[in-house]
Amino acid sequence: MSKVNDEVFLSWLRQEVRPALGCTEPVAIAFAAATGCRYLNEPCVSVSGFVSENLYKNAMAVTIPGTQCSGIAMAAAVGVYGADPDKGLEALRGLTAEHIQQAQALVSQGQVNITARAVPDFIHVDLTVNGRANRCRVVVQGGHTCITELYLNDQPVAGFCRTEKNTRAAPLPQFSVRDAFEFVTRAPLQDIAFMLDAARLNGELSQAGLQGRYGLNISGTLSAAVSQGLMSDDLLYRIQMETVAASDARMGGAPVTAMSNFGSGNQGITATLPVVVLARELKADEETLTRALTLSHLVAISVHARYTRLSALCAASTAAMGAAAGMAWLFSRDLNVVESSVINMVSDVSGIICDGASGSCAMKVSTATSSAFRAVLMARQGVRVSSSDGIVGVSAEQTVNNLSRLVVNAMPETDREIIHIMTEKDALVQS
């Protein structure tokens, strides 16, 4: 990969490290429905359309933020009554009990009909909201809040402008783990200080998970295990506990914002909290934490930017590769340790599939987080998985590229079969 200038790294961070309330796939559906209602100029009486199969997979079972509900139809319905499209990925902030009741009524009356469709874009929402006299069609493609088409009664909406906010960003140059390491080492602190917002937001989400009971409550299971003497209250436990608690809360519908990475709150959580917990354990100062977080998020971006935004590969595992890099940096400031940590992780967790967003994502976050810490401990001792083993290459870049080849060339069929299984299950539930 060619060298990139510092502004490219900052552009990647601004583009891909963003606040998001709840799982971003149901939010994209709600955002599209809310946008249509804004232009409808009358009450919505029904919603129809389709979403891409991958988006359907990730929105089917996860709890919608601020509710105890799930499902594609419900995501659109709460968008009709309670979403604010001006808030982007936080469109569902401010949902009320009345909004939820109205949405449930619309769904129960059979007025929301959205199907899954195989389309080129992994993120694709095509919804039409209907009033008594008018209809508005909204198409979101390429990004969760990227509006590419907008029609009122089949005519393009006058004055609609594809601004930076609602169009897909131009592709940015890819970069290597080494590039990210070198940038983090030299970057002026004031340029990356905003990365502390990731620690604050995801820390607040973790506290919500620790104080409540969300999703599968995996953090509660870990806590009970310590109380029963089945696990130790050690550094690995604390890393897992705080990270998983945030994922529990997010997947369980807590109305608390996450700092996302590459369009996913779970990826942002996984790239952030292991680094925060280790920095606290090492009594690192604020600048050190800022640089470690920046490296973690950039490495997560570097890995994921090489393949499709949604795929059959669990992205929490690749985000944890970022966390491994950030933790390795905290321990050593050594590029070799950082790259070895990433290589060790690819060898360990490259086979975790993504079978849609749900409460079980927190289990995958726990697995990936544990792998990241173990990978770093190995790297600190000079242990790196050999290039003769599996898909591991002679360098971190070749290893990550090998993983990406699997995602791009081999996993689409796996993804299709996962989607078929999930849609068949959904059809049985609805019948």
Helices and strands in order:
Elements: H1 6-16, E1 19-21, H2 24-40, E2 46-52, H3 53-59, H4 72-82, H5 97-108, E3 112-117, E4 124-130, E5 135-141, E6 147-152, E7 155-156, H6 177-186, H7 189-192, H8 196-211, H9 218-227, H10 235-251, E8 257-259, H11 265-281, H12 286-304, H13 315-332, H14 335-349, H15 361-380, H16 396-430
Parallel strand pairs: 2-3
Antiparallel strand pairs: 1-8, 2-4, 4-5, 5-6, 6-7
Helix pairs in contact: 1-12, 2-4, 3-16, 4-5, 6-12, 8-10, 8-11, 9-10, 10-11, 10-15, 11-12, 11-13, 12-13, 13-14, 13-15, 14-15, 14-16
What this model shows, in words?
It is a single chain. This protein is of the alpha+beta class and 431 residues long. Helix content is 55%, strand content 10%. It has 16 helices and 8 strands. The strands form 2 sheets. The chain has a 6-stranded mixed sheet. Strands 1-8 form a two-stranded antiparallel ribbon. A hairpin with a 4-residue loop joins strand 4 and strand 5. Helix 9 packs antiparallel against helix 10 (235-251), helix 12 packs antiparallel against helix 13 (315-332) and helix 14 (335-349) crosses helix 15. The chain is globular, with a radius of gyration of 21 Å. The N and C termini lie far apart (51 Å).
